[in-house]
Write a structure and sequence with these properties.
Blueprint (H helix, E strand, L loop, with lengths): L3 H11 L4 E3 L15 E4 L5 H6 L2 E4 L7 E3 L7 E3 L3 E4 L5 E3 L17 E3 L1 E4 L23 H5 L93 E9 L2 E7 L6 E6 L2 E9 L2 E4 L6 E11 L57 E3 L5 E5 L4 E5 L2 E6 L4 E3 L22 E3 L3 E7 L2 E6 L4
Length: 443
Amino acid sequence: MPRLLPILALSVALGVPPSLALDASRPSPGGERDLERLEVGSPIAADRARLGSLMVGRGCLSTDGAFATDGTLSWQPSCFGTFIAGGIGSKVYPTRGTAKDGDGHPSSNAYASLLVQFQADGAVKREVNGMFINADIVGGAASAAERDSTNTTGQLISLRQRPGPNGERPPTAWGHNIDLHIAPGAGDVQSWGVEYDINNFNKDCAPGSGCLSAGMFFNGISGHPNTAWIYSGGGTTNTYKGTVTVGKNMINWVSGAKFVPALYGIRLNGTFYRARYVSPTQLSGDVAIPDTAAPVAYTAQNAIVHNGIFLQGDNNVSGSDFISATNAYHGINITGHHHVAFNAAGDSAPYALLARPGQNLCLDSFDSCVSDNGTGLVYGRKGARVLYAEPQRTSVSGFLNSPLATPASSKAPCQAGDWAHDANFVYTCVAANTWKRAALSSW
């Protein structure tokens, strides 16, 4: 771009913000195409703050555009280019949408030191990227000698939160924030917040193999524990209010907005239930919901996603879908309003759960537990053994109780080992369909 350097030199010499408009259709003497427009300015004036100290584009404002007409208050910019600004940065109206302010503009307090604003046109067969980092990482003597002293990062974001001069709390910080807005009517699109591709043609990097490769790596230097490595705090979804009746586990619409196809979390009389869409006037409860003939108020929201974590594909994972090798108190801690906390019914696995001898499966906090001590199955209650079953014998700590029953005859169907009793006899099946009995007497 031979014409760019003299303009920058002139800007410095004159101390003024010149603008240069170049015809993109006219090649430079070297055969290269120049920038369509270069604006070098000062962010002092309001419009210059929106335009940016340096704008590569067609000389419009970063806030030019209009609200979408789909009712979502999303924003459709009309000024595309790259904006670089000092100070507070260039004003941004996010395409995800915001509410309107008193003047009818987007109510946005977003500014960017570097703003890339572009439009991807589906009419053109092209892969469009707002930013593309293309690196070739080559080994050498230094990297061969010491692995971690030659780190290469495609993008490194370093943030520091610190109190203000009078100890004020600093702003909320996001190291990386992706906000993907899928507009109504988009149809059968594919939408991914983040994609990680690992193309390993080197060697098998199984745990302990000497090489490491992973889609995500979490690490830190921390003086205090953080909340979580991965945290989903929910969000804002459609909220429904009105009145309903309930009968035979069906929720029937009475007033308010009618139902739409979705899974619902619904509150009735202060209790949370899960419900599935049946029709615009009816939902089906996942669990038993008390009947109510009189209309009652309800509030409901649909979920943001169907699955929190979804892994699929026969060639996706070879070892374990999930490994926990920490010293956390809980390996998995399930709370909330689930209908089934753990479900392996849809899997072909022959073993739903494996445990070593001495490990307990507890059903009432730690008061009612089942375990295998290596020779037999043990059931204990509040620290006392209640039942012990081994291949040769089963013993109980108290009385063994079964309902009174009388075989129809000595040839009634049975298998060897079956037994029954009534008020007068004890019956034992000694062979297939062969009963014998012994009389009972009082003492």
